[in-house]
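Subgroup meeting minutes
Present: P.N., E.W., G.H.
Scribe: E.W.

1. P.N. recapped why we're keeping a running log of single-chain structure predictions: easier to compare across weeks, and new members can see raw inputs and outputs side by side.
2. G.H. added today's entry (310 aa).
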Amino acid sequence: MLDQIKGLHHVTSMASDARQNNDFFTRKLGLRRVKKTVNFDAPDVYHLYYADEVGTPGTVMTYFPFPNIGKGNPGTGEVGRTVFSVPAGTLGYWEKHFAEQGVTGLKRETLFGENRIDFDGPDGDSFALVEVKDDKRLPWLKGGIPGEDAIHGFHSVSLRLEDAGATEELLKFMGYEVIDTAGNVKRMAVKDGNGADFVDIETLPGVSYANLGAGSVHHVAFAVENRAKQLEVRKALMDTGYQVTPVIDRDYFWAIYFRTPGGVLFEVATNEPGFDRDEDTAHLGEALKLPAQHAHLRPWLEKNLQPLGD
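Output recorded in log:
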């Protein structure tokens, strides 16, 4: 069993409109945009990162807003819901705030003894806020949400799988253990994590495979401290039979990717070097930052990328 993985690093999804996406996360959820860059493989598409003040691993929601992308159809083989941590006793504030902001899909529920509110993103994305006592992570305090109510980072992701067995075994190999079960949902947790410590597995036999599109999660990334730990994880996964990509430099972290038995794309990302490698912390996410291989496209991109309205 591995011990290098310390919880979630980031979650990357797809959107249909960059400006709408930016507005939702910075104004309705009160997160900070910590990076405005482009997709490495499709540089005419933004890659937007939203997080706490500095982009701490375990707080980072990222998006590829593809213009004219079709809407995703939920199903199995995907991340079903991304869940954020908020302080205990704050769901009343969020219900009122979401109602005022026109956020849809609001539903109160209790799962594994935790109070939560489900809600939809602008493309039908599935989200929830869950009340967590004593989350020591510091929220972003300049996003228009009172500090005592603000999001601290991720709590968990849920995986929708037709058959959970092989993915559960994979997560156990990655250092997670089953800590609770509620109906068709198993909760798994990693010890000594970064606060974003849980993965829920929802088993849905007979449900068709998801068709990814706007509102779908593209991949979920797990955090390791550095490149040395990442290489240890890569070797262990490959020795177990997984097809893992070479290490890829994503400018703000190093990444490896592999497909899970249930169909979900997993990434293992380093905590280093971080989002302040090319911007001062006070100005994260303000300027358009480009990977070196796309720097020559700057004049065209600055003219043609959709303005974000900020």
